Each structure stands twice: as structure tokens, then as C-alpha cells.
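User: Fold this one for me? It's histidine kinase.
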Amino acid sequence: VVAVRQSSMTTTALKSARDAEQRARRKAEVASAAKSDFLAVISHEIRTPMNAVISAANLLRRTRLDIRQREHVSMLIDAGDVLMGLLNDVLDFSKIEAGKMELESADMVVRERLATMARLWEPRAMANGVRLRLRVAPEVPEAVRTDPLRFQQILFNLLSNAVKFTGDGEIVVAVDWDGARLSVAVSDTGCGIPADRLTQVFNSFEQADVGTTRRHGGTGLGLAISRRLAEIMGGTLSVESVEGHGSTFILTLPVPAVVGEAVRPERRIE
Ligand code: ADP
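Assistant: Here's what I get for histidine kinase.
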């Protein structure tokens, strides 16, 4: 009798511990959704006046200004761009968290899209003393069906980080195809990421080295958004890194290949 009573007490205790855990998890989810909603509303509200500030500063830049005035207007525009990037990140992140991120689908001409991105980042890399190389394997199809804007957003984040965390060295963007999946590896010879921080860099608002990052700016949202986008697109985003030697971020996306006559040009990317 004692044994039976003890075992039913243990079952009851276990059940109530499980219930408490579930309640705590639900509470955390509700709090996180509320935080996300709040950030989204605030970001949205700030974006409209911020757009006006940036537009006005751009108009001002076209007027006759002396060197100092021009410098001040440029500072205004640069700061505005950073703030807009931050607001867009917060909005994207909350959209993903709320399960409201919708994907587009179009034919992306692979070599052209990547060459454009490399051209965009080359001057910034060179300013840091970094060489940027693009290597596309011959078997990579002419075009793939994907969301070109989101693909570009992920690559933009990876290249921006590679440039930010590499001084004097090399960045290689290597594109491969296994018959069903496109993979893009962005490797750098930069500062690398400590082994114990490797998985955390994909968490929201997480930065591997607070000191370095504070010097470089950033929100800690870029990789969280990039990984979630890759997953929504049915793919993965992973990292390999050796501290002091560099990092490789690998994006893999299952995408249908489109070749020859079937290729319809992708919509314009702003
Ligand atoms: P952030 O806006 O801070 O760059 P991310 O989510 O893009 O946010 O990156 C998170 C953190 O991961 C960075 O703050 C940095 O510590 C680390 N990290 C990302 N990419 C690299 C890289 N290529 N080399 C070294 N560290 C990196």
C-alpha cells in the first residue's frame, strides 16, 4: 500500500512540475510576442519620419554647400541609413517571429546576381585592405527559382560581417551546385569566432565579442534573421570558424534550376 501511494505521489508531483513548466513556457512565449509586436509598432512609426529626414538631407546635399556643411549633411545621411537598417531588421525579425514573412518567387540569374553583389562590396573590402574573390563552379545552373530579394539580404549580411571582421586578408564567395541545392560559402581570413560562442551568433541580439562589435556597431540581428530566412526558404545557414584565423558561413538552399529559354528575368532589385 505504501509503495503504491508513494508511486502515485511521485506521478502527481511529476505532472504538476510538467504543468508549471508548460505554463512558464507559454508565459515566456506571450511576453516575447508582446515584445516583438511592440518593437514592430515602434519601428514602423519611426520609419516614416526617418524617411522624411533622409529625403530632406539628400535634397540638401544637392544644394550649394561649403565643405563643412557637406560633411555634416553626409553624417546626417549615413546615420539615417544606419538607423533605417536597424528599423528594417527589427521589422523583419518581428515578421519572422510572428510567422508572417512571405516569400516571393522568381528566376534569379545566379552569376549576374552574385557578380553584382561582389561589385558592390569590393570597394568596401578594399578600403579594409581585403581582397574579395567570387568563384562559381561550372555546374551551377544559369538561373534558379527562389526569392531573389531574400537571397540578396542573406548574402548582404554575410558579406557585411566578413568585411567588418576582416582586416588585411581575403574574402572568398564560393558557389556550388549538387543537382538540387545551391550552396554559397562566404569565407574570410578575419578574427574568427571563439568555439564556445559559435552556436550563439545565430541568436537574436547576440554578438560573439562585445568589445569588437561595439567598435564596429551592429545589432546582433543580422545572422538571426539570415538563418531564419534560410530556414523559411527550406535551407540552412551554418558556420565553421577558427578563432584568429577566419570564418566560413555556408548557405544551402534547395532550389529548382531554370535553364535556357525557360529563364524569365527576375524582377528588379532595388
Ligand atoms: P551584428 O549586427 O552584430 O554584426 P550579426 O547577427 O550579423 O550581428 O552577427 C552576430 C555576431 O557574430 C557579430 O557581432 C560578431 O561577433 C559575430 N560574427 C558574425 N560574422 C562574423 C565574421 N565573419 N567573423 C567574425 N565574427 C563574426
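One thing worth pointing out: The CA atoms of residues 58 and 77 lie 7 Å apart.
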